[in-house]
Amino acid sequence: MRMEEAAKILLAEFNLGCDVQHTEHVYRVYVTTFLGFGGNFARQRYEDLVLNETLNKNRFQVASCIWCCACSVPALLIQRQAWAPSPLPAIVDEPLPWSTLQESLPTALPPSPPTIKQTSDLPILLGQKTGLSPDNPFLDPCLPVGLTDVVERNSQVLHVRGRGDWVSCGAMLSPLLARSNTSQASLNGIYQSPIDFNNSEFYGFSEFFYCTEDVLRIGGRYHGPTFAKAAQDYCGMAWSVLTQRFKNGLFSSHADEHRLKYQCFKSAWMYQVLHEGFHFPYDYSNLRTAQLVYDREVQWTLGAILYKTRFLPLRDLRQEGVRQAHGSWFRLSFVYNHYLFFACILVVLLAIILYLLRLRRIHHRQTRTSAPLDLLWLEEVVPMMGVQVGP
């Protein structure tokens, strides 16, 4: 009953009809979010987990070393419950005399004190703490072989070196899924509606596409065993080999050094999320990783847009778009009215000036052509007038 109530909360209605009354286009869709379970944030959570566990182990080693050395019996901490009749102090200020310890030890133990010296063994045991120096780093199975890195959290530093064990990496990532014991729960114990995998088709975008294509170059139709084999082979390669292949252009143009560095981790995380978190069968074949749909990149924001507009029918969206278009046109016309008016005046003035210049040019041309005719007329008329008026 509790799971059914949780399922009702995760259902959202989408009306894709032209009117609110057109209920034949109303769809009930399972909607939820998994913030904090993306690839980059999962890496931060994993580093926090490794850092805390390693520091706790180091503290336990230090406490064990101090106790054993103070008691002059290095094996006493491990075997105390087996043969000590009474609890011994965890830390003492001074080494206990061997005669005092002999009284509480069984007679089967050798009466001679151990040969390990407390003053010389304490620094050796303290030097075995993992991750506090580059000489003794934490061996991270989720990084390529030989890659060195430093994890810093609140002035605490952990030195790590990759060992490229993809299977062990997946086992270490399993607790980060925060699954519950119920079969209908996915990541973080959130209810997941039943899926008919035999009659369903899924598309994986964003990190699902990057993990399969950028480095492994097997994007498209997903096949679990093929992906696991390619990811395991990649993790087992030396970091120097991977960087050389990157320089030779053997990976996708979208790949960068960050992708090379965390591809092993992200591929293991994607595999765990898909099969252990969302319960996809390992041989599922109806999943396709993609980046473009009709030559357009698709991201998770498309789902956010659909969720925000789920109560707005298409006709209302179209009318709202028309109203916004008219309003924007009126605002633009009001703003640019004065500019258009001045532009029209300038065009008219320019046309008038060009017309006057053309008239003036025509007038000069007519003047130049009429001057020779007048001279010719004078040359012909004046002699004739002289002949007529002569004696």
Please explain how this structure is put together:
By secondary structure, the protein is mostly helical. It has a domain at 315-382. Helix content is 53%, strand content 9%. The chain has a 3-stranded mixed beta sheet, covered by helices on one side. Helix 2 crosses helix 10 (257-277), helix 6 packs across helix 10 (257-277) and helix 8 packs antiparallel against helix 10 (257-277). The radius of gyration is 43 Å and the shape is elongated.
**What's the end-to-end separation, in Å?**
145 Å
Number of E-state strands: 9
Low-confidence segments? 72-96, 104-126
Largest sheet: 3 strands, mixed
Q: Mean of residue pLDDT?
A: 75
How much of the residues is beta strand, in percent?
5-15%
Q: Which outline best applies? A: elongated
Order of helices and strands: HEEHHHHEEEHEHHHHEEEHH
Family: Belongs to the GDA1/CD39 NTPase family.
Cofactor: Mg(2+)
InterPro entries: GDA1_CD39_NTPase
Protein name: Ectonucleoside triphosphate diphosphohydrolase 7
Output the keywords:
12 helices, 53% helix, 391 residues, two-stranded antiparallel ribbon, 3-stranded mixed beta sheet, 9 strands, mainly alpha
Short description:
It contains twelve helices and nine strands.
Write the SSE topology.
Blueprint: H1 2-9, E1 11-15, E2 26-30, H2 39-71, H3 76-83, H4 98-104, H5 118-126, E3 138-140, E4 148-153, E5 156-162, H6 166-173, E6 202-204, H7 207-213, H8 224-235, H9 239-247, H10 257-277, E7 287-289, E8 292-293, E9 296-297, H11 301-308, H12 314-389
Parallel strand pairs: 3-5, 6-7
Antiparallel strand pairs: 1-2, 4-5, 8-9
Cofactor: Mg(2+)
InterPro entries: GDA1_CD39_NTPase
Keywords: Hydrolase, Membrane, Transmembrane, Transmembrane helix
